[in-house]
C-alpha cells in the first residue's frame, strides 16, 4: 500500500519492512506498533484438554524387563499390590511348598482306624510354614478298603490307581510323581515320602542333593539305612498312627 498521510505526499518512499508494499521513509523509521492485542496472544478460547490417567509401567518385583512389563493405570500408585499368591485361595506363593507321596500298600492304615485321622496328623506335623502343593496316595483301589478310599477323597487326597498285578507299579507311579514335583517346584520345597521301600533311595538322594529339597521319610518297621541316610528327618509310621481313634461309621439315612 502507499502511505495515506497527507503531509507525506512529497516525501521519498521506500520499501516497508512489513511486506512487499511502499510507504514513506518517515513512517518506515517510526517504531512499529503491534496491532495484536494481549487477548489475541493468549491461548485460544477453546476448552483445555481433559486430564486422563496415563498408563505407567510398574515393576512387580518379578525381574521382568521394561519391554515385557505390563502397563497399569497410574491410579495404582500408593496401593498395595500382591507380589505373590493365588487369586483362588490367597495363599502366598513365597511360602515353601510341601508334597506328600504315600505308598499306602507299604504303610497301610491300621484296621478299623480312620484314614482321615492319619492325613490330619501328617498335615499338622509336617505342614507348618508350608503350603500344600501335593498330597497323593498310590494304590490298587480294587484291593484297598472302599471306606479308606472314600475317607482319602473326603480329605482332598489324590488317589492314584495302579494295577497291582504289574510289577513295581506303585513304585513307578510314585517315582513319576516325585519327578514331576521336582520339575514344578524349587528349593526350599519339602518332600514327605511315606514308604519303607529301599527302591526310593536314589530318588530321595536326587531330591536332597541335586534339587536342594528338604526330605522327610515316614517309614515302617525295619527301614533300610540305605534309605534313611537320604532323609533330613525320618519318623516311624507307627508314631503317626499311634492312638488313632476308631473309625466312626455313619449309617445311610
From TrEMBL:
GO terms for cellular component: peroxisome. InterPro entries: Marf1 (IPR024768), NYN (IPR021139). GO terms for biological process: regulation of gene expression. It holds the Pfam family NYN. Transmembrane segments: none annotated. One of its GO terms (molecular function) is CCR4-NOT complex binding. Residues 98-235 form the NYN domain. Coiled coil: none annotated. This is KIAA0430. The gene is KIAA0430.
Amino acid at each position: 500500500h502507499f502511505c495515506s498521510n497527507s503531509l507525506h505526499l512529497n516525501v521519498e518512499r521506500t520499501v516497508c519492512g512489513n511486506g512487499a508494499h511502499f510507504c514513506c521513509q518517515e513512517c518506515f523509521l517510526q517504531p512499529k506498533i503491534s496491532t495484536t492485542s494481549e487477548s489475541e496472544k493468549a491461548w485460544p478460547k477453546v476448552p483445555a484438554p481433559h486430564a486422563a490417567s496415563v498408563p505407567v509401567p510398574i515393576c512387580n518385583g518379578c525381574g521382568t524387563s521394561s519391554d515385557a512389563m505390563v502397563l497399569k493405570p497410574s491410579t495404582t500408585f500408593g496401593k498395595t499390590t500382591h507380589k505373590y499368591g493365588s487369586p483362588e485361595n490367597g495363599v502366598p506363593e513365597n511360602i515353601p511348598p510341601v508334597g506328600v507321596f504315600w505308598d499306602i500298600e507299604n504303610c497301610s492304615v491300621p484296621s478299623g482306624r480312620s484314614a482321615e485321622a492319619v492325613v490330619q496328623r501328617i498335615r499338622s506335623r509336617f505342614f507348618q510354614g508350608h503350603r500344600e502343593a501335593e498330597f497323593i496316595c498310590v494304590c490298587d483301589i480294587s484291593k484297598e478298603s472302599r471306606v479308606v478310599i472314600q475317607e482319602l477323597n473326603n480329605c482332598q487326597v489324590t488317589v492314584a490307581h495302579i494295577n497291582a498285578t504289574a510289577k513295581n507299579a506303585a513304585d513307578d507311579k510314585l517315582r513319576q510323581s516325585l519327578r514331576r514335583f521336582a520339575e514344578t517346584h524349587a528349593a526350599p520345597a519339602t518332600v514327605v515320602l511315606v514308604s519303607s521301600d529301599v527302591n526310593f533311595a536314589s530318588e530321595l538322594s536326587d531330591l536332597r542333593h541335586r534339587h536342594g529339597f528338604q526330605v522327610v521319610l515316614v517309614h515302617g518297621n525295619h527301614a533300610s539305612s540305605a534309605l534313611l541316610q537320604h532323609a533330613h528327618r525320618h519318623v516311624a509310621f507307627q508314631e503317626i498312627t499311634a492312638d488313632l481313634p476308631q473309625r466312626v461309621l455313619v449309617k445311610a439315612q
